[in-house]
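The instructor's notes for this session suggest beginning with a concrete chain rather than abstract definitions. Hand out the sequence below and ask the class to guess, before any prediction is shown, which regions might be ordered.
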Amino acid sequence: MELSITGTNAITYPVMHVWDWRVAIYLFLGGLSGGLMTMSAINYLRPGRKGPMQSVCCWQIPVMAPILLSIGLFFLWLDLERKLHGYLFYMTFKPLSPMSWGAWIVLVIYPLMILYALAALPDEVKARIKNGFVKNVADAVAPHLSKLAKLNVVFGVLLSIYTGILLSTFVARPLWNSAILPLLFLASGMSTGAAVMIIIAKNKEVKLFFTKLDIWLIFFELLVLALMFYGHYTADAAHRAAIMPFFNSSHDTFPYFLSIITIGILLPLAIVLKFLEVTGKHTEEVSGFGLFLMNTSAIFVLIGGAIIRFALVYAGQLSGYGYNMM
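After discussion, reveal the predicted structure:
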């Protein structure tokens, strides 16, 4: 293909985006689904858990996880050039292809997510199920809830890591080509999963547990993000140029500059709000102000996680070898 360009500004010089917002949404929802799988299972398995499994977050979150993953996969399907050929992923298995691994991992993850969601359903919810087969499956898997929870922890982590591996194997895109990127997406996926747990949970003890856990997850996320930028800066010229859009406030790279500034404000602010909440005094019920702090910080985490996916998907396609976009 031959492309002739004339002009003197960034709008006239287009970047041919291979992946757009649909892929960014998939990566965000995929990581979030992995986080929800892991966090809902941790909530069940953690020592000292109080309250019955019938509490809202114990069964609504497992139900939510496969729904969000399905929405994410729908956006990924929309991005396919030949949508009717999607089934070809399952006609073969290529050990060296990350997309092939991802297709088959999702095929394994779906049954685990659905079985765990059915096993976690409280009796009053199962009583409202009209389909006899679904109700029988839910009753059959209920005794195996602990085993399913452990499997969901493992495969939730794998799902979040995979969303980063999908990008990191693109050698031609220096910004994506980093072994740290899967760790960043893992940290972000777990953090956003904990944030949703905080928002959905009604029990004070559950909210406080995941608020404390999310503080460490955000710290880890910020550390990994800093290490990724440091790794690119100390690498070759192409990798160093790949991160420059995030540190250049000119008009053509301002969205990326704004994204790193926003992340640098939202995530530390979320930590501060969480510290204010976990160090405060609590009665049997969380106060209105306490709920505001918890939910606001959780929303900041979700926004930050989405910004990370969108910024990296778009900025990664500005990077390359043999030329300097800056």
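Then share the key points. The chain has eleven helices and no strands. Residues 204-233 form the longest helix (30 residues).
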